[in-house]
Design goal:
alpha+beta; Elongation Factor Tu (Ef-tu), domain 3; 2 domains; 8-stranded mixed beta sheet; 6-stranded antiparallel β-barrel; 9 helices; aminopeptidase; Peptidase_M42_aminopept; Peptidase_M42_dom2
C-alpha cells in the first residue's frame, strides 16, 4: 500500500540520546537566582566541544563563542536561573518562614519537599500545612506568604542553626525531570533551562553539520532573569551585540482557568511562538517568520502590550538599541514543579534558531526603514 501524500509524516527529533541525558541532568540540578554556578558549569561542560572559547562573567552568566575574532556579533540567549525561596525567619520552635527569590508561587508550596542549601550541603525539609481535619468548621485560610512555613524536623532554633541553616539560605524544590506519554518533558525550572538546552543544541548542530558562520556567535546563558533581567543587562553591555535572538517560555493557554481573550491562543505541540512587541525589531522578526515558512517549521504568534517580560527587553534597549527578537516555547503550568513542554516544540525551536542563523549574513542590515 502506498503512503498517501496527506498522511502526517513521522516527526524525527533533532535531540539525541546523549543530548537528552544532559537535559535531564541539567533540569534536575538546582540553579536558583543568584546561585546558578553549578548549573552553569554543567551547561558549559556540555557546550565546550561545539565552541571555540567561553567565559563566565562576575555574576555567573555563561557564554560560549563560535568564531570569536569576527567583528559582527550575534547573540542567541536563554536564562539559567530558577525561582526559589530564601530563609527569612526561624521561630523559637524551629519552624522556618520564607520570602521569594523570583516569582515563586505560594499556592503550590504546602506539602512540597524542598532542599535547603547550606555551606555544608543540602538539608531536607517540607512545607507544612494544617491537616484537613483540624480545619473543619473553620473559615478556610488560603496559602499565603505570611502563613507557609518549612519544617526540617527540628524543635528549636538552635537545632535548626546547628544544621547550617541561617537567614539567607536558598531553598529549591526537589521535583525531578520525567517524560510524560512519550510526548512531554516535565519538571521544575523548564522556565528557562529548556532555553539553555535548546541554544546549546543549536551550537551542536552547527558543529556537527560543519556550518561556518560569517559572524561571531555568542551562545549566552544569562543569570537573574527571574528578578528583573539583570544578567542580560550586564552581558549585553559587555558583548555589545549587533543582533540578539532570545528564547524563553510562554503560556500554553489551552488548559482550564486561562482566558484566551487576555492571554492569547497558544498551545503546546503547535510550534514555536513568534512575538510581536515594541522590543521586537520588525525586520529581524520578519526574518524569523520567513525562515519558519521556508523550512516548514510550524509556528504561532503572540502579542505583548508593553514589554515581553523576557531578556529580549534587556538586549533590545542596550547599547543604543540592538535589533532583537523573541522565540518562545509554549509551556504548561509555569512556575510550578510540573512545568510541561512538548518534545516537538523543543525540536522546532532548535531548528528555527539554527536556520535563522544561516540566513543572517555578515553585517546584515536590519534597519527599521528598510
Amino acid at each position: 500500500m502506498t503512503k498517501k501524500k496527506d498522511d502526517k509524516q513521522k516527526h524525527v527529533s533533532v535531540v539525541t540520546k546523549k543530548s537528552l541525558q544532559f537535559f535531564e541532568e541539567y533540569i534536575n540540578n538546582p540553579s536558583p537566582t543568584g546561585f546558578e554556578y553549578p548549573g552553569q558549569k554543567l551547561w558549559l561542560d556540555y557546550l565546550k566541544p561545539y565552541i571555540d572559547e567561553s567565559f563566565i562573567d562576575n555574576y555567573g552568566t555563561a557564554v560560549g563563542v563560535i568564531n570569536p575574532k569576527a567583528e559582527y556579533r550575534v547573540v542567541i540567549e536563554a536564562h539559567a536561573d530558577e525561582i526559589s525561596w530564601f530563609v527569612n525567619y526561624i521561630t523559637p520552635e524551629g519552624l522556618i518562614y520564607v520570602i521569594r527569590n523570583g516569582g515563586s508561587d505560594h499556592q503550590i508550596a504546602p506539602s512540597k519537599r524542598v532542599n535547603i542549601h547550606t555551606d555544608t550541603g543540602m538539608v531536607k525539609a517540607v512545607f507544612g500545612w494544617p491537616a484537613i481535619h483540624t480545619r473543619s468548621g473553620e473559615k478556610e485560610e488560603a496559602p499565603a506568604l505570611k502563613n507557609i512555613f518549612l519544617d526540617c524536623g527540628c524543635t528549636s532554633k538552635d537545632e535548626v542553626e546547628a544544621l547550617g541553616i541561617h537567614v539567607g539560605c536558598v531553598i529549591t524544590y526537589e521535583d525531578e525531570f520525567m517524560v510524560l506519554n512519550d510526548r512531554y518533558y516535565v519538571g521544575r525550572a523548564l522556565d528557562n533551562r529548556a532555553g539553555g538546552f535548546m541554544i546549546a543544541e543549536v551550537a551542536r548542530l552547527l558543529k556537527e553539520n560543519k556550518q561556518k558562520l560569517p559572524f561571531a556567535l555568542y551562545i549566552v546563558n544569562s543569570v537573574q532573569e527571574e528578578i528583573g533581567l539583570r544578567g542580560a543587562e550586564m552581558i549585553a553591555d559587555r558583548i555589545k551585540p549587533h543582533v540578539a535572538i532570545v528564547t524563553d517560555v510562554t503560556h500554553d493557554t489551552s488548559t482550564p482557568m486561562i482566558n484566551k481573550i487576555t492571554q492569547g491562543d497558544l498551545a503546546c505541540g503547535k510550534g514555536p511562538v513568534v512575538s510581536y512587541a515594541p522590543a521586537v525589531q520588525t525586520n529581524l522578526n520578519k526574518l524569523l517568520i520567513k525562515t519558519a515558512e521556508k523550512n516548514d517549521i510550524p509556528f504561532q504568534r503572540q502579542a505583548s502590550s508593553r514589554s515581553t517580560g523576557t531578556d529580549t527587553d534587556a538586549f533590545a534597549y542596550s547599547n543604543g538599541g540592538v535589533p532583537s527578537a523573541l522565540i518562545s516555547l509554549p509551556l504548561r503550568y509555569m512556575h510550578t514543579t510540573v512545568e510541561m513542554i512538548h518534545k516537538e516544540d523543543v525540536d522546532n525551536v532548535i531548528s528555527l534558531i539554527y536556520h535563522a542563523l544561516l540566513n543572517i549574513e555578515k553585517n546584515h542590515d536590519f534597519k527599521y526603514n528598510k
